[in-house]
Each structure stands twice: as structure tokens, then as C-alpha cells.
Design a protein that fits this description.
Elements (H helix, E strand, L loop, with lengths): L1 H9 L1 H67 L2 H4 L3 H14 L4 E5 L4 E4 L5 E3 L4 H7 L4 E7 L6 E11 L2 E11 L2 H7 L9 E4 L5 E3 L3 H5 L4 H4 L7 H12 L3 E7 L2 E9 L6 E7 H4 L1 H47 L12 H4 L4 H170 L4 H149 L3
Antiparallel strand pairs: 1-2, 1-6, 2-3, 4-5, 5-6, 7-8, 7-11, 9-10, 10-11
Helix pairs in contact: 1-11, 2-11, 11-13, 13-14
């Protein structure tokens, strides 16, 4: 057990569990501490902003009261009779004591033209262009921004009140104070030890600040930031102050992070700004951080101690069980560790269950090894016997397979020959079918030819009849044309007679005209008639000439027609002879076709009988082929079955040999176990 404890101290699981618990404790502390610091920082920031805003508001009210009091005192002085007299000597005597008593550098009486005469020095200055003078002469009590005095060339602050006499402004009383007076007021303000306050006007110009140079230089971050990028955060903060009445914010200046609050000063165009350093505001967070680090260190130490003992209580039994498992991994199951781990085995947690399961597994493995050893010996003996039997069965199967292969070869050859015969018969059957189809086609064609010959004979007979009718018609036309030719000759003779009569009539008309001319006045009517007769005779002559021309052409056409009709008659006679020859030829063709139809019928009948016999023979050959194929298939199946049986026997023999070798290997492996 001592050795077990030492091993436990060195075990990786102890270190891992301890480290895990410590890391978990540190993580929890860091998370809780981080949240606490964050919340504390937020709370401190909010508290600082609220406090800063409240202090700023109080500071602006304080400055407002101071300014108001000074303006009230100055207004009281302006209302004195000596001041209202507007006699400078009188005023000077009265005001000399007030200058020092009220803390002014000097006082001055300003006329309505803006001309100022100072009480102490007696100097004069034209201040008509100053805004505070204009307001005072307009009857308004006011205070100026920090100015660079024309008289002293130093920073000053001017208080101005009107001098009112009988309800009318007759001048103004001004008091000049040191420009640092406002800075002295703001110097007393600021958050914490490092915080400071300052005042800006409506243009964003610093008019009061701890740093007097800013006041003298009229520092204006909004304008300076245009050339100096470092002042952009300050410029944005100033822009926010000018846009809003009051509020809080933060900016960075000269490397310091600052919170600021601002509030307007009533009665002026100023804004009071109060600042606080972020580091100072969050100083409490730093203290909290240090405290948390101390607590985390203590928690880590305590967690380490607790984690070590807890890890040890978990790791000790696991280390012991690991030793048992390692020994069993070396095939050593001889040692019984039940007594040494009885306490661990009785634990109610997962480790106790794991211990019970390990011991139970060890017992089962021991029993299994004993049984496997016995079974392996039996398997080895049985496999040797099975190997011998398998070899004998394989030898017998090979002899049977050889015989069946020879039978299968004969059956296969028979099936092949039968199939060849069936194939040849199939080809013959196809030729017979083709022959029968051709015979049927020939018979159909012969019938069609016979029908066409009959139609041709009918057409030839009709053609012969039409030819005869054409010959008769041609004779009639020929006769008519001859008669027309004869009539044309007679018309020509009549036309000649008419022409002769026309000439005689024309001569008679000419004679009548001559006689009428001789008769003079009495023969004038007769001359007219004679002239008309002459015209008619002339027209008759022209007409007969036209008729002669037409008759002449008609005679020529008739002669041509007669000639063509004679030629046509010869052609018609030749057609009659050709038609007769065609008819005789068609008769011979019809006779030959009838003889062909008889022969086709005989061939067709023979083809039908061959087809019938072919079907019967094909049936027998198919049956024989099927039987041959079945025999061949059966012998092949038998051969294959015997080959499979032989192969199986060989496989059994090989498997039994392998089984014997495996049994021997198993025995060798089991011998390695120590039980």
C-alpha cells in the first residue's frame, strides 16, 4: 500500500485533477473579480459624474452670486449724488476710496460718447467700441469677458453699470479688476486632489483657468484643433458645451483622461467647466483590484490543498486498478487482488463499481481461458479427421466429374448437330415461304395483266371503230371542201361580171356628165345624177376587187385543205391497219396469260404442300433439338454440380487444415496466459 501511495503521488491524474480544480477556482475568482471591478468602475464613474455635475452647478451659482454682488455694489456707487453730479472732480474724490476698498485696479466715468476718464490715474481712453460700454450706456448692468486692456496691456475684467439720473442714462461707471480674479475663484474648485475648473465664453475661449497663459493667449481649442490634431477631443468637448446648456462627458488632454461637467453662469455668457481625472475617480477600483488579487491568491492556495487531497482520494484506487490491468495486459491472471481492494470494492461510487466489474471480468477471463483450452484441443483432433475425409471425398468427386464431362461433351455435340439441322431447315423454310410468296405475287400480277389485256382489247376495238368513223368524216369533209372550191370559182366569175358592169356604168356616167356639161344650166341636175352613178360604179369596182381577193385566198385555202385531206385519208388507212395488228397482238397476249395462270396455280399448290410438310418436319426437329439441349444442359449442370462438390471438398479439406492450424495457434496463444 505504501508503494501504491508513492505511485499515486507521482501519477498524472493527481496532477491533472489538482491543476483542473485550481484553474477552475482561479477562473471563477477572475470572472467574479472582473465583474466586481467592472461594476465598481461603472458605479464610481456614475457617482463621479453626478457629484461633478452637482459641484459644477454649485460653482456656477457661486460665481453668479459673486458677480452679482460686485455689480450691485458698483450700481450703488453709481447711484450716489456725487456720481450723479457728472462732475469728474466730485466723482473722483468720492470714488478714490472705493477703488482699493472693493479690490478694483481702477474705476472710470464714461461719458455718453464712450470717453472714459479713470479715477486713480486720470487717464482717458476711448471705449465706445467696447460691447460692455455699449450695454451700460443702453442701461444694462453687465460684465465683460477677460480683455487685454488698452491702458495696461494686461488681462482685465470690466464691470459696467449705467449712471441713471431722473430716469435717463447720463453716463456709465466701470470698474477694472485683474483678469486673474475669475481664475482665483475657479482655483478653489475641482474634483478631488487633481481636478480643476475653468470658464469659457460663448465663443469657446478660455476666460478663467489655473494655467494663466491660456487666459492671456485667449486659448480657443476649436480653432487650434484645425491645425493641431491632438486637440480634437478637447475641441469636440467644447463644441458639445456650446451646443448644450449643461451636461457631462470625457476627453483626453495632454495624455490624461478627464471627466468633465459644465453648467452656464446666469447673467453672463460664460460656462463653468469642472474636471476630474479618470485615474483619481477610479482609484478605488485599483484598491479593489489589489484586494481581489490577494483573495485570489488565498483561494488558489486553499483550492490547491483541497484539490490535492481530493485528487489523491480519486487517483489512489485508479492507480491500483491500473497496476492490475497492466499485469493482466501482460496475460498474467494468477494473482487474486480481491482482498487488497476490498474497501475500494465496497465503495458506493463509480470507482467501487469499476473495481467490482474489473474483478468480475478477471474471474470470467480465467474461466474462459480454461474452457477455450479444452475446446481448442477437441477442435484440433476433429479438424484432422475432417481433413482426411475431405481429401477422400475430393478424389472420388474428381473421377465422377471426368465421366460426366465426357457424357456432357457427347450430348453437347448431339445438340449442336440438331441445332445445325434445324437451322438449315429454317433457311429452307424461308426459301419455300419466299417462293410461295413470289408465286402468289406472280398469280396476282397475271390476273392484273389479263385484266389489263381485256381492257386493252376493248380500247383497241373502240379505236378501230373511231378510226372508221374518222375515215368517213374525212371523206365528207373532203367532199365539202371540193364543193366549196367549186363555189369559189363561180363567185369569182360573178365578181368578174359585176366588175364589167361597173366599168360600163362608169363609162355611161362619164358620157352623161359630158352631155350635161354641154347642156349647160339645164343639164346640171342630170350631171349630179351622173356623178352619183359614177361613184356607185366606182364603189362596185372596189368591192368586186375585194371579193376577187377573198375568193382567190379561199380558193388557195381550199386547195391546201384538199391536199391535206388527201394526206389525212392515207394516214387514216394506215391507222386502220395498225389497229388491226394491235388487236391481233392483244389476243395472243391474252392467250399466253391464261396459260401462265394455269402454271402459276400448279406451282402455288405445290408450295402449299411443301409448306405443310415443312411444318411437320420442323416440329420434329425442334422437339429433337429441345431434347438434345435439355440433355446437354442436364449433363453440364451435373458436371458443374460435381465440380462444385469437388471444389467444396477441397475447400473443406483446406478449411479443416486451416482449422487445425488455428486450433494449434489458439493453443499456443492460450499457453501464454498465466491462470
Amino acid at each position: 500500500m505504501r508503494k501504491l501511495k508513492e505511485t499515486c503521488m507521482k501519477s498524472g491524474i493527481t496532477r491533472k485533477v489538482t491543476l483542473l480544480i485550481v484553474l477552475l477556482a482561479v477562473l471563477i475568482c477572475v470572472i467574479v473579480g472582473g465583474i466586481s471591478i467592472f461594476i465598481s468602475g461603472q458605479s464610481l464613474t456614475q457617482e463621479a459624474e453626478v457629484s461633478l455635475a452637482a459641484e459644477t452647478k454649485l460653482g456656477s451659482e457661486k460665481i453668479d452670486i459673486i458677480v452679482d454682488n460686485r455689480l450691485l455694489l458698483l450700481q450703488e456707487i453709481a447711484n450716489r449724488p456725487s456720481t450723479l453730479s457728472m462732475d469728474f472732480k466730485t466723482q473722483q474724490e468720492s470714488l478714490k476710496g472705493d477703488v482699493a476698498r472693493l479690490g478694483y485696479l481702477d474705476m472710470a466715468i464714461v461719458s455718453l460718447t464712450g470717453q472714459a476718464t479713470y479715477v486713480t490715474s486720470g487717464d482717458t481712453s476711448d471705449l465706445a467700441d467696447r460691447a460692455y460700454i455699449k450695454k451700460a450706456l443702453a442701461g444694462e448692468v453687465n460684465i465683460s469677458d477677460v480683455l487685454i486692456s488698452k491702458v495696461t496691456n494686461s488681462a482685465v475684467l470690466m464691470y459696467a453699470v449705467p449712471i441713471v439720473k431722473d430716469g435717463r442714462v447720463v453716463g456709465a461707471l466701470i470698474g477694472r479688476r485683474d483678469g486673474n480674479a475669475l481664475s482665483e475663484i475657479t482655483k478653489e474648485m475641482g474634483y478631488g486632489e487633481r481636478g480643476y475648473a475653468y470658464i469659457i465664453n460663448h465663443l469657446g475661449i478660455v476666460v478663467a483657468h489655473d494655467n494663466r497663459d491660456m487666459v492671456m493667449d485667449q486659448f480657443q481649442p476649436i480653432e487650434v484643433a484645425k491645425t493641431d490634431q491632438k486637440l480634437l477631443p478637447v475641441a469636440k468637448a467644447f463644441e458639445s458645451m456650446l451646443e448644450n446648456k449643461s451636461g457631462v462627458g470625457s476627453y483626453t488632454y495632454n495624455g490624461d483622461d478627464l471627466y468633465y461637467a459644465y453648467h452656464p453662469i446666469e447673467g453672463t455668457n460664460w460656462t463653468l467647466v469642472n474636471t476630474a481625472f479618470k485615474a483619481e475617480v477610479l482609484s478605488g477600483v485599483q484598491n479593489l483590484f489589489i484586494s481581489l488579487l490577494t483573495i485570489i491568491a488565498g483561494v488558489v492556495v486553499l483550492a490547491s490543498i483541497v484539490a490535492f487531497f481530493l485528487a489523491k482520494s480519486i487517483a489512489a484506487p485508479i492507480v491500483g486498478l491500473t497496476q492490475i490491468v497492466n499485469r493482466q495486459a501482460m496475460l498474467d491472471f494468477t494473482k487474486d487482488e480481491t482482498k487488497n481492494f476490498s474497501k475500494i470494492e465496497n465503495r458506493k461510487d463509480e470507482i467501487g463499481q469499476m473495481t467490482k466489474a474489473l474483478f468480475s471480468m478477471s474471474d470470467n477471463v480465467r474461466e474462459l481461458l480454461i474452457n477455450v483450452t479444452s475446446t481448442a484441443e477437441q477442435v484440433s483432433a476433429t479438424s484432422e479427421e475432417l481433413t482426411a475425409t475431405a481429401h477422400q471425398s475430393a478424389t472420388a468427386s474428381e473421377e465422377v466429374a471426368q465421366t460426366v464431362n465426357e457424357i456432357a461433351k457427347g450430348a453437347s455435340d448431339q445438340a449442336k448437330n440438331t441445332m445445325d439441322a434445324a437451322s438449315a431447315l429454317n433457311r429452307l423454310s424461308k426459301e419455300i415461304e419466299n417462293n410461295q410468296k413470289g408465286t402468289q405475287d406472280l398469280s396476282t400480277a397475271s390476273a392484273q395483266i389479263s385484266q389489263l389485256v381485256s381492257s386493252g382489247l376493248s380500247v383497241v376495238s373502240e379505236l378501230a371503230q373511231k378510226t372508221k368513223e374518222n375515215a368517213v368524216a374525212s371523206d365528207v369533209v373532203f367532199s365539202s371542201i371540193q364543193k366549196t372550191n367549186e363555189s369559189s370559182s363561180k363567185i369569182s366569175e360573178a365578181s368578174g361580171m359585176i366588175a364589167s358592169i361597173s366599168e360600163q356604168t362608169n363609162l355611161l356616167a362619164l358620157n352623161a356628165s359630158i352631155e350635161a356639161a354641154r347642156a349647160g344650166e339645164h343639164g346640171r341636175g342630170f350631171a349630179v345624177v351622173a356623178d352619183e352613178i359614177r361613184k356607185l360604179a366606182e364603189q362596185s369596182r372596189i368591192t368586186t376587187t375585194t371579193i376577187d381577193d377573198m375568193v382567190s385566198r379561199l380558193q388557195k385555202d381550199s386547195e391546201t385543205a384538199v391536199q391535206k385531206m388527201q394526206e389525212s385519208g392515207v394516214i387514216v388507212k394506215q391507222e386502220e391497219k395498225c389497229v388491226e395488228l394491235t388487236k391481233e397482238t392483244f389476243d395472243q397476249i391474252a392467250s399466253a396469260i391464261k396459260q401462265s395462270e394455269k402454271m402459276v396455280g400448279i406451282i402455288n399448290q405445290s408450295s402449299i404442300e411443301m409448306e405443310s410438310n415443312k411444318s411437320h418436319v420442323m416440329g420434329n426437329i425442334d422437339t429433337l433439338s429441345a431434347v438434345a439441349e435439355e440433355n446437354a444442359a442436364s449433363t453440364e449442370e451435373a458436371s458443374a454440380a460435381i465440380e462444385e462438390q469437388t471444389a467444396s471438398a477441397e475447400q473443406i479439406a483446406e478449411a479443416s487444415e486451416d482449422l487445425s492450424e488455428m486450433a494449434q495457434s489458439l493453443q499456443a496463444m492460450i499457453r501464454k496466459f498465466k491462470v
